[in-house]
From TrEMBL:
<dbReference type="InterPro" id="IPR031777">
    <property type="entry name" value="Sortilin_C"/>
</dbReference>
<dbReference type="InterPro" id="IPR036278">
    <property type="entry name" value="Sialidase_sf"/>
</dbReference>
<feature type="domain" description="Sortilin C-terminal">
    <location>
        <begin position="265"/>
        <end position="325"/>
    </location>
</feature>
<dbReference type="Pfam" id="PF15901">
    <property type="entry name" value="Sortilin_C"/>
</dbReference>
<protein>
    <submittedName>
        <fullName>Vacuolar protein sorting/targeting protein 10</fullName>
    </submittedName>
</protein>
């Protein structure tokens, strides 16, 4: 038995009209965690995001969304309920990425920390590429606590392209060097591999991107790179094609063996003491709607192979706050 609900809105009373053009892009609609998000265009150049409350009333979340031909104006976190990433149009015609962790009641600009500073100034804008793709979960939310976006870093009149990554559910963000064009995760993010295609250099990290090492290769035409995770042995396969000799070459990089040599230890599987709790942060702390949600993440200092097949979130009860609940 399927229940079908029909909602009718009088355009003159509602004061807006549905943006019918996005019916051509079904992926622009999101229905996750029991929430339906839809676009409404209140004016010609003012695109808004709406949702429905438990009484089936349409609630405006935010307006002045940036519009794109090939990207979304917003995406929601598939692992954490009520977390929204959106690109807003600013008064100067610029675009900036914002995040909401309370289902759109409040939005804050994306902030990040890098190795050399505690933060960034007000003259810096981050603009994520919010892709409308079927595999956006795999590309942007590969693990319960890891978020990855490609995007633009705007500062002092210049713009550079980067990969932005968070390994704590979006609480803190790091920016990778602009030369790194592709990022591959293994060992549930414990191993990161970045690639500089123009000089065929590999950058790799064993602590979620806090420290990096590099390795140059004799490749001259990298065709593809594939991650293959066997029990206790993460491997990267890279394919090179020599156009002059018409020869394909396969390169295999065993990170398990590298870990053993660098840290003078044998390959081993992670044990319970190798993990730490990563709590999902909200505006008022880690308690939200009567629950604390956390994930088990391998510690940065633990040199082991995380071979868990399934990583469910964990919850603990906590005191409720009226501000945590919807309208």
């Amino acid at each position: 038995m399927i229940d079908i609900t029909t909602e009718l809105f009088h355009a003159k009373i509602f004061g807006a009209r549905a943006d019918m053009t996005i019916f051509k892009k079904v992926r622009n609609y999101f229905y996750l965690h029991g929430n339906l998000y839809v676009y409404v265009r209140k004016y010609k150049d003012n695109l808004c995001l709406y949702t429905f409350n438990k009484y089936d009333q349409m609630i405006k979340l935010i307006c002045h969304l940036a519009t794109y031909d090939d990207k979304c104006s917003f995406v929601t976190n598939p692992h954490i309920p009520n977390v929204i990433y959106a690109n807003f149009k600013l008064n100067r015609g610029e675009t900036q990425s914002y995040i909401s962790v309370d289902n759109g009641k409040n939005f804050e600009p994306i902030k990040f920390k890098d190795r050399h500073s505690s933060g960034v100034g007000n003259n810096v804008r981050i603009e994520f590429d919010l892709e409308c793709r079927d595999d956006y979960i795999q590309s942007n939310f590969p693990e319960k606590f890891i978020i990855i976006f490609k995007g633009s870093f705007h500062t002092k009149g210049s713009t550079t392209r980067h990969i932005f990554i968070s390994v704590d559910d979006g609480l803190n963000w790091n920016i990778l060097g602009s030369r790194i064009e592709k990022l591959i995760l293994m060992n549930r993010g414990g191993i990161m591999l970045g690639i500089e295609y123009n000089i065929h250099r590999f950058w790799y990290s064993y602590d979620y991107g806090f420290h990096w090492m590099s390795k140059s290769t004799d490749m001259n035409n990298l065709v593809d790179i594939i991650a293959m995770e066997f029990p206790n042995n993460p491997i990267i396969a890279a394919f090179n094609y020599d156009k002059l000799k018409n020869i394909y070459t396969l390169y295999l990089f065993s990170f398990s063996h590298l870990m053993s040599r660098i840290f003078i230890m044998k390959d081993r599987t992670c044990q319970i003491n190798d993990f730490e709790h990563i709590y999902v942060s909200r505006y008022s702390g880690t308690c939200y709607q009567g629950q604390q949600v956390y994930n088990l993440k391998k510690k940065r200092s633990s040199m082991c192979v995380d071979n868990r097949k399934f990583v469910p979130p964990h919850t603990k009860p906590c005191p409720c706050s009226i501000e945590d609940f919807d309208w």
